[in-house]
Amino acid sequence: MEPPRKLHVGVVGLGRMGKRHALNFFHNVPRAILTAVCSIDDVEREWATHTLAPSGVAVYENYDDMLRHPGMDAVCISTTTSVHAPQTIAAIAAGKHVLCEKPLATSTDVSQTVVDAATRRPDLKVMCGFSRRFDASYRDAYAKVRSGIIGKACVMRCQTGDVLDPTGFFVNYAAQSGGIFVDCAIHDVDLALWFFEGAKVRSVSAIGITAIEPDLLQYNDRDNVMGMIEFEDGRIASVYTSRMMIAGQEDSTEIIGTEGKLTINMIPVANHVQIYKPGGIHHELPQNYWERFHQAFTTEAVEFTDCCLDDTQVPVELASAVAAVEIASALQEAMITGNKVVFDDKGRRISSSSGQAQRRTKL
Amino acid sequence: MEPPRKLHVGVVGLGRMGKRHALNFFHNVPRAILTAVCSIDDVEREWATHTLAPSGVAVYENYDDMLRHPGMDAVCISTTTSVHAPQTIAAIAAGKHVLCEKPLATSTDVSQTVVDAATRRPDLKVMCGFSRRFDASYRDAYAKVRSGIIGKACVMRCQTGDVLDPTGFFVNYAAQSGGIFVDCAIHDVDLALWFFEGAKVRSVSAIGITAIEPDLLQYNDRDNVMGMIEFEDGRIASVYTSRMMIAGQEDSTEIIGTEGKLTINMIPVANHVQIYKPGGIHHELPQNYWERFHQAFTTEAVEFTDCCLDDTQVPVELASAVAAVEIASALQEAMITGNKVVFDDKGRRISSSSGQAQRRTKL
Amino acid sequence: MEPPRKLHVGVVGLGRMGKRHALNFFHNVPRAILTAVCSIDDVEREWATHTLAPSGVAVYENYDDMLRHPGMDAVCISTTTSVHAPQTIAAIAAGKHVLCEKPLATSTDVSQTVVDAATRRPDLKVMCGFSRRFDASYRDAYAKVRSGIIGKACVMRCQTGDVLDPTGFFVNYAAQSGGIFVDCAIHDVDLALWFFEGAKVRSVSAIGITAIEPDLLQYNDRDNVMGMIEFEDGRIASVYTSRMMIAGQEDSTEIIGTEGKLTINMIPVANHVQIYKPGGIHHELPQNYWERFHQAFTTEAVEFTDCCLDDTQVPVELASAVAAVEIASALQEAMITGNKVVFDDKGRRISSSSGQAQRRTKL
Amino acid sequence: MEPPRKLHVGVVGLGRMGKRHALNFFHNVPRAILTAVCSIDDVEREWATHTLAPSGVAVYENYDDMLRHPGMDAVCISTTTSVHAPQTIAAIAAGKHVLCEKPLATSTDVSQTVVDAATRRPDLKVMCGFSRRFDASYRDAYAKVRSGIIGKACVMRCQTGDVLDPTGFFVNYAAQSGGIFVDCAIHDVDLALWFFEGAKVRSVSAIGITAIEPDLLQYNDRDNVMGMIEFEDGRIASVYTSRMMIAGQEDSTEIIGTEGKLTINMIPVANHVQIYKPGGIHHELPQNYWERFHQAFTTEAVEFTDCCLDDTQVPVELASAVAAVEIASALQEAMITGNKVVFDDKGRRISSSSGQAQRRTKL
Fold this sequence. Notes:
Four copies of one chain form a homotetramer. In chain A, 35% of the residues lie in helices and 26% in strands. By secondary structure, chain A is an alpha/beta fold.
C-alpha cells in the first residue's frame, strides 16, 4: 500500500511571521512536508540551519534557487510586503502553488498583477492569507450571518488593536508597509468584504493621530486611525486601528443586522483564568496576534494544503485581496489628505473631495 | 426647630420622559417637592390629575400659568426639543432655576440664546441634563481618567444604540428632533467634551443609512449613522448611533489613552442573572435607556436640587451644552451633504469640503 | 384634600447596619417617616443627634421609651442578634409592626417564640429581613424558576463571600453571632427555602477551617466553611461561606434544574467599567454587602411600609425565618461535632450520626 | 543525516475516546507514529480499517497480539475502566510505555497493582491521563498559585458538569464505571491533589440524587452529587458533579487562598462569538468535554511522547492517580451509605461514622 501523497512546501522569509509559518508547516500540517526555507538574512538562515535542517529541510539564501528545489509543490511567502507580488508571480511562473501573506501589495495596480498572473495558471492555487477568515470564531459568526439569524447584515464596526511595541519597531517598518490602514486595517476591510459578500466600495474617509510615535509622520503614517467606508449597496463599516493597545491584542468585530447583531471578541481573553486580588478581578489577554490567531494560521495552512492536493477552490478569492488593498490604500490616502475618496458605480475612483489637507497634529 | 427648606419644582411636558421626571422629583428627591406639572396634552394632564393631584400637585395646561405658581423655585423642562429654549428662557425670566432636557435646541444659535439668558441671571441655576454624566459607571471612569491611570486620553469610541421601536415612533419625531446625531449621538458628543475637557472641534465627517425606516429620508434623517470628530488638540472620537438594536439598549464607550484604556458597558447587562438553556448561556439587557440610566436621572435631580438650595455650581456647564449641539448638528449636516465640516482654530466654521453630495441609498 | 397617611418608623440599633436602616427610612421610603431612633451606645446616639435630630427625629437611649414614642407605628430592629427576639416580642406587645434584621435568634427555640408572639397579633406585620429576597436579580431569577424555564429546580449551590475585614472585627463578634453559618450562610439557607418552596430539611453536614483567624476556634467558629443540605423531597444544596474574600463581596448562587440552570452574580462586578492596563483587563467589585445590596434594602423598607399601610401580607413568611435558623444552626453544629445532623420526616431532629469529633486544625 | 527517532504508539480501545486518542497520535503528535490500534468491537475495527489502515496503521482484535507488534514502543489505553489495570500491567510486562486513561481502576487496591508493576520497571514511562493537568488554563492557574499570588491556597470548589446525554448511555455505563464520583469527579479530586500538593485525605462526605435517571439507583449511582473533602493539613474542597447540564459542558474550578482567588472557566464559552437577539445576548458552550479539552489531549499526547523519547519524568505521578481513586471511591461510598468516611493520619481508613443509611429518593 502506497503512503498518501504529501504537499512539499517551501517558505520564504523567516522573520517573526516566517518562522511561525515554517514551524507550522513543519509540525502542524499532517499532509504537508516542509521541504525548504529561504531567507536573505544570515541570522534567520542560521536559525533554520539549527532548527530545521537536522530534520532534512533545505535552507536557501536565494529565492530563485529555492524555487528550483526538486519536488517542491508550493511556496509560502512571508517576506516584507514590497516583494510579496514579485515573489508570488515568480512562484507562479515556476509552477508552484502560492500562499502569500497579506497584503498582496501596497497598491491596487501591483496587487492586480498577481491576479493576472494567477489567472493565466488556473491549475495553480494562489491564495492571500487573511488569517481571520480561518479563525473558528469568525467562521462561526460567518455561518450564523449566512443562516440569516441577524437578518440583513448592514453595519460593521471593526477594531484591530496591536499591542504597543515599545521598541518602536513599526516606525521604521512604516517606510514600506503602506501605512497602518494597509498593514493592519486591511484585516478589517477583508472582513467587511467577506461578510458583505464582496460589496463594492463607494467612498472612504479617515482621520488619524500620532499619540505615541510622532516619528511616523515622516512616513505619512499614524499610530491611531479611524476610517469609515460606504459600500454601493448601502452598507457601511467603520474601522479603528491602533498600535497603542496596552493590555494586549484587541481585535474585535461587530456585525449588525436588521434582526440581530453578532460580536466577535468584544472583551479579549487569553484563557479561562480569572484572578481575584484586592480591589477586583483581572484577566489576561493574548499579547500579540499570534497568541490570538495561531490556530487560525494552522487551519489556513491545512486548508491551503488540502486545496493543492485535492484540486479544490481556495477559500479566499484572490480578487477580494485586491479589493481589500484598494480600500485600505484609499483609507490611508483619505487620512493623509483629509479628503474623502469617492468611487463611481463602476468602482473607479473619481476626483476626491477637495477638502482642506489634514493638518498634522502631534498630541 | 424649623424643618429644612425644600425646593419646589414644576415639571413641564408629561410625555414618556416627562412622567419619569415628575415621578422622580415626587418620590426620589428628598430635598425637593413636586409642586406643579404642566402639559398641553389632555391625556397627559388626565394622568397627572389621577396620579399626582391627590397628593397636592397642581396640574396646569398653560406653561406661563405654571410659571406663576406660588412658591415654585425651579422648573424641569421635558417637552419637545423645539420649545426647550423658549421655555428655558421664559423660566429664567420668571426667576426660576431650570433643569432642561437635552438638547438645548437643534441649532447652535438658538442654544446660545439660552446661555445668554442664563448669563444675565447668575443667581439662577440653569443646567442641561446630560444624564450619562450622572451615571455611576461614567463617573467612575471619569475619575479614573482624571487620576491618570490611562495616561493621556486621546481616542474615544462611542455607541448609542436605541432598542428598535417597531412602532416607528421616531420617524415622525424626526421632523423636529434635529436628526439622529442631534437627538441621540449628542450624548456621545457630550461625553467627548467631558472626557476631553472641552476640547474644540476641528472637523467632523459622517455617513448613514436607512436600514429599517426608509421614510426617515424625507426628514434628512437615517437610522444607523457613523461619525468621526477631530479636535483641535489632536484627539479623535468616533460615534456609532443606531435605532435598530434588537437585544436592548446598548450604550457603550471606550476611552483610550497612552497608558491604558477604559470601557463602559462593553457588553450590556440588565442584572446579575444568567440563563443556561440548550445551546448556551443567555442574559437580558435593559430594554430602553430609562432602564439603563434611571439611577442617573435620580442623581441628576438630586444634584440639581442641591445646587439650587445650596447655591453651588451645576455639574454640567451650560456652554458645553452649546458646543455639543454645534458638533452634533455639524455631524448631521456632514452626513446629509456627504461633506466634511471643518472649523478654524477659533472654532468658526469654514467652508466645508465640496465633496459629492451623499447619494441616498435604501438598502 | 388630605395628605396620605405615612408610616411612622423607629429604628433601634445604630451600628453599621442600623445607621443604614435609619437613613434608608429617612431618605428613600416615600410613604415612611423616620420618627425616632434608639441606641444604648453614646457615640451612635451622638451621630443621630447630629444627623437626624435636626430634621425632627427623636433620639432615645432606652428601647422601652422609644416604644412609647407617640404616633410610632413600626419598629426596625438592627441591634445585635441576641436581642432581636426579645425586642421584637416587646414591640409586638406594644402594638408595633416589626421589621427585624436576620436572624431572629441563634436558636430555633428562641426564634419560635417570635412566631408565637406574632401569631397572637395577626393585625401586626412582623417580618424578618432577608435582604436578598428583595434584590432585583434574585427576584428575576425567582420569577424565571417559577415560570418553569429550568424545569424542576433540584440543586442549589450558594456562596456568601464576605470581603476580608483585616481588623478582625468578626472574631469578637463570633462570641454571640451564633457562628458563621447562622450569621452569614443563613442568607443562602433562606434562598434554598425560598426557591425550593419551603422544602423540609432531612440532613446537614458541614466542615470548616480557620485559614486566617485561628482565634475563632475559641468560639467554635471558623472563617471558611462548607455545608451540604438534603431536603425531604430529594433536593440538595451546598453552601460555601467565607470571611476571606480578597477582591470584594462575592455572593453567588446557582439554581440547577432538569431543563436549565440560572445563576446570579457568578462573576461579581461593581459597575460597568473595565480597566485595560498592561497584562490584562480589570474590573472592580462591591467592597461589602451594602454596596452589593443597598437597593434591596430600600425595596425591603418600601415593601414593608406598604404592607403595614395597606394591610397586605409581608413578602417573607416568619415561619420560614425559623426554618432558616434551624438549618443554619444545625450546620454550625455539624461542623463543630464532625457529625451529620439528621431530621425525621416530621422535621424533628433524630440523634446525629456518631462520627468522630472534628479535629481542630490550624492551617 | 539520520531522521529523528519517533515513538511508535499503539492505541487499545476505539470507542468515543479511543478514536480521539488514535487520531490525535495520528495527526497531532509530530514525534509519534500511530503504528497499531486494537479493539474487540467489530464496528470499531471496521472504522479503523477504513480510516487508519490505508495509512499503514495495523488493526488488531486481540490486545496481546498488538503488544507483540514489531517496533511498538508505547501503548495508549482507552478501553473500559475495568480493564485499565490489567491492560496496563500487561503492557508493562511487554516492556511498553503506557498512557492510561483515568481512572486506573475503580478500587484503590487494584489501582495500587499498577503502581507496583510500574515500580518494577523504572525504565518505562507509565502515566495516568488526567487531561485537565494539560489544559492551558489549568496550567496557567497552577503556575500562578505556585508563584504565590493568592497566598496559601486552602479552599477549592470544583464542578464537573457533563452535558445531558438524553440517550441515557451513562445509565448502563454505571454498571462498571465505579459511579459518578469515580468516573467524573475524579478529575476534580485530581485537581485538588495537584493544587494542594498531594495533601492526604482526612474525611469525605457526600450526598446525591437522581433528578433525571432514577434507573441509576440500581447501580448505586446518582446523576447529581455533591461531596466535601477534608485534608490532613487543614485544607478543604467541595465537588459538584452532574450529568444533567443543559447548556453544554461546564467544568469550573475555584482556588481560594489567603491573599486572593483564582477561577477557571466560571462562565463557560465555546468561542469569542456573542449573539444579540430580542431580549438579550447569548453565547454558546462546548457541547462535551472533548470540545472543551481537545487541546489538552493533544498536549498530553505530545508530552507523554517527549517523556518516552527523552527519558524524562512524566508530568502526572502515578501514585497520585491511586490517591485520586481512593478519595473518589470513598466519596461514592459516603454517598451510598450516608456516612462520612474517615482516614487516620497514616491515611488508613478508620470505621466510618455510623450514620443512618441514605434514604433513596426519587425526585
